[in-house]
Every structure is written in structure tokens, then in C-alpha cells.
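Dear support,

Our group has been running a series of protein-ligand predictions, and this particular one with zinc ion is the one our PI (initials K.S.) wants archived with full inputs and outputs. We had some confusion internally about which version of the output was final, so please treat the block below as the authoritative record. The input we submitted was:
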Amino acid sequence: MVKDVAEVILNSTYLTALTGAGVSAESNIPTFRGKDGLWNKYRPEELANPQAFAKDPEKVWKWYAWRMEKVFNAKPNKAHIAFAELEKLGILKAIVTQNVDDLHERAGSKNVLHLHGSLRVVRCTGCGFEFEVEEPPEIPPLPACERCGSILRPGVVWFGEMLPPEVLDRAFMEMERSDVVIVAGTSAVVQPAASLPLVVKRNGGIIIEVNPSRTPLSEVADFSIRGKAGEVMEEILSEVRKALF
Ligand code: BV8
Ligand code: ZN
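Confirmed final output from the archive:
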């Protein structure tokens, strides 16, 4: 199957990828759903939405500061590196990610669209001023905006919040242009991200799924490879390299 997939990738005219928390799993970043998922210990309703933040901003900030610590100290894994290599070879044109970590960028990927924001970004709830951070904030105290004094929040998209329109539009455009899309490490349940690969399908394109488990996308995928993104993407890259050099 990997050989056929490498063939499809080599013959593609516009290859993109949609990635989820599973591609960062091998960097020891916990995923959301599944056995050791974040949502097993915490309820997303209590943490990843505006109401939770309004009700108990310190609790929400402590959770994000903990996640920022993990992400900022994590290393890109073989999956991130393989995606970056495919982009360097001129084959992969863009990555649309649901992840809020910056591991794709730290592996060398240039064209990365963050549908759900980034833990590197902090935004003011008052004046909207946003900036990048190197370290998570010490909580308490609640971080305040130096411009207007309002409380700052993580620069991520919470449940019930709109995705950044310009990013979502560009993501749909990338999918409209794709004749092949690799969907790696996502449970394909969160909308509107999970609908993006269906655009490629509707245009007669090919979906390649990489996931140890089945997802709602598995039956529409042309190839559904049961495996870890790190291992599978590395195998795909070596098949592509063999054919090229
Ligand atoms: C919106 C950022 C409306 C924050 C996140 C009922 C039906 C349908 C939709 C809804 C509904 N009720 C509510 C909704 C909408 C809701 C939604 O989709 N809910 C779902 C859960 C039902 N969506 C929203 O609220 C979105 N906004 O709709 O706005 C609107 C419209 C107009 C105007 C105003 C408002 C906002 C969604 C974004 C939420 N923010 N994260 C944070 O991170 O804290 S979502 C969160 O889930 C992450 O971003 C994550 O990326 C995303 C998806 O999860 P996955 O990445 O797929 O991760 P998961 O753990 O689920 O799966 C991991 C997968 O990896 C598994 O399949 C596993 O098998 C696999 N895996 C494990 N190890 C590996 C591996 N794969 C490969 N290799 C491995 N080694
Ligand atoms: Zn402000």
C-alpha cells in the first residue's frame, strides 16, 4: 500500500495535508480523544470554550500554561520531518493543521495554515492586541495586557468560536486546488476542519488517510493506512526518494 501511495504522491499535481493531534503524539504531546487523550482527564466543555474561561480564567490558564510547557519543550518527530521534506522536494504544497503546536514549523515546514490558532500566540480580550510568546506565563497572576490592562487569553480557537475567516478561506482554497490530500492523525470529528478533505473527494481527487484507528473519513478515503504517522510518513518519504533519485 505504501508503494502505491508513494506513486500517487509522485504523480500528484497539487498535494496538500490536513493534520491533527495524532501527528504530534510521537512527540509526547497528548491527543484529545483516545485512550490517553486530554479529554479523558479534563472535560473540553470545562476548559476549551469561552464560557469556561469567563467562569474560571485561572483554571483555564493553568491548563494552557501546562500545555504550552509541553509543546515548547517538545521536539518535532519523524512525521513532521517527513512533511517538511516533501515540501522541500516541491511535492507537498501546503499543510492545513488543526494543531496548536508549532512542531510543523520547527521541523522546517514553511506553508502551514493553523485552523485553530497557536499556543505561541497570546491575545488581549480587550483591545485584541496579540503577540508571540517564548515561555508560558506564570499563573497566577492572570496575565494582563500592557496596553489596556484587560486579561489576556491563549491565541487558540475554542469550541463555539469561529475559525479565523482568512485562514479557513485559504484552507478551502488549498483543498479546491488539491488533487491529492494526506489526512494524518485526526479523528475527523471536529468541524469545519473535518469537512476539508471532502472538497478534494468531491473534485474527484484522492484522500490518503494515515491513522492507527478507523475514523469517519476511513470509508471515503482511497487509501487508509493503519499506522503511526511517524513510521508511515517516513516510509512514504523513502519510497518517494527512491523513485526520484
Ligand atoms: C465552530 C483548539 C461555530 C483549542 C480546538 C455537533 C455536531 C457537529 C459540530 C458541532 C456540534 N456541536 C458543536 C459543534 C461545532 C464544534 C465541533 O466540531 N464539535 C465536535 C467535537 C462535535 N466546532 C466548533 O466549535 C468550531 N467552531 O463550529 O464555530 C460558529 C460558526 C459561526 C459563528 C460562530 C461560531 C471550533 C472548533 C475548534 C475547537 N478548538 N482546539 C485547544 O487545542 O485547546 S479542537 C481540538 O480538536 C484540537 O484543535 C484538535 O486538533 C481538534 C481535532 O482533534 P484531532 O486533532 O483529530 O485530535 P484527536 O485527539 O481527536 O484525534 C487524534 C487522532 O490521532 C486519533 O484519530 C488517533 O487515532 C490518531 N493518532 C494517535 N496517535 C497517532 C495517531 N495518528 C497518527 N499517528 C499517531 N502516532
Ligand atoms: Zn489590550
